[in-house]
Design goal:
Layout (H helix, E strand, L loop, with lengths): L10 H10 L2 H5 L18 H41 L16 H14 L4 H9 L6 H4 L5 H9 L3 H10 L4 H19 L27 H11 L3 H18 L15 H4 L6
Helix pairs in contact: 3-9, 3-11, 7-9, 8-9, 9-10
């Protein structure tokens, strides 16, 4: 690190940190500080990079908590709607999906999840008492967020519109948001880097929001706001914690590196459009 121009004020503290965090993992956090020849920009300190790393770590936990709440809420909405329209076992019938749906793969995934979770109490219960027949409100608890996203995307358009109305949006947006949420969730679950990252899945947003999509983290956080089950809780809990975190690490981070604009807190505040 010193050979590439990084200033290390406390070498013992640096060595101690590297015993806990793989150097290869840490090098990704040097990306914003690199020159074209792979040296570091003048004035780059290890303490600054470590500050960015810690900010990212705490931000990831905050984002993951918001994703969890949305994921549980989405499961509930999809199961409730599907059970009322198609019955408890309607998901077994390929006719209840659109033409893009690959039903054989869908059923195979379900069977794989049942096998993988065979020791879970509710799985044992349904295997013993109901001969392995799971109603939608039970089986959906085994869906990954990716499966949940595809389940929604594969529903007939009329169903997607009805469910999207529960989220106060349109089907095209909800489809995009759930797909992007899957990428965000997996990044957090595998301790991936959020800072200075370009996401492969960019969520669509209503034009009346007046925001420009960048492919950076702000797009994803805006999606969390739009999907939040409770706009009031979002403001007083999640957004307050996010603002405090940004303030705490303001000397280390560059908000442009995560796509945050000057009035980001106002954009993320308030009820959904």
């Amino acid at each position: 690190m010193k050979g590439h121009g990084c200033i290390i004020k406390d070498e013992m503290a640096c060595a101690d940190f590297l015993r806990k965090v793989n150097y290869y993992r840490l090098t990704a956090y040097f990306l914003p500080f690199r020159n074209a020849d792979h040296t570091y920009k003048t004035g780059t300190t290890f303490e600054q990079v470590m500050g960015v790393y810690e900010f990212d770590q705490r931000l990831r936990a905050l984002v993951f908590a918001a994703v969890e709440e949305i994921e549980i809420y989405t499961r509930t909405k999809l199961a409730y709607y599907h059970a009322h329209k198609y019955g408890p076992h309607g998901y077994w019938d390929a006719k209840n999906f659109n033409s893009s749906h690959r039903h054989d793969r869908f059923i195979a995934q379900i069977e794989s999840e049942i096998k993988h979770n065979k020791n879970a109490p509710f799985v044992k219960h349904h295997q013993l008492k109901y001969d392995g027949e799971f109603p939608i409100w039970a089986i959906i608890e085994l869906f990954s967020l990716g499966m949940l996203s595809r389940f929604y995307a594969d529903l007939p358009l009329e169903d997607r519109k009805q469910i999207a109305s529960e989220f106060k949006t349109k089907a095209q947006y909800l489809t995009s948001w759930l797909r992007s949420l899957t990428v965000l969730r997996n990044t957090c679950a595998h301790y991936g880097r959020l800072y200075y990252t370009m996401f492969t899945s960019i969520p669509k947003v209503p034009p009346n929001l007046g925001t420009k999509q960048t492919g950076k983290l702000f797009d994803q956080i805006l999606t969390l706001k739009l999907l939040s089950p409770s706009p009031i809780s979002w403001d007083v809990a999640y957004l307050a914690d996010l603002s405090a975190l940004v303030e705490e690490y303001s000397e280390y981070i560059n908000l442009a590196h995560i796509g945050f604009v000057n009035d980001w807190d106002n954009i993320l505040r308030g009820a959904r459009p």
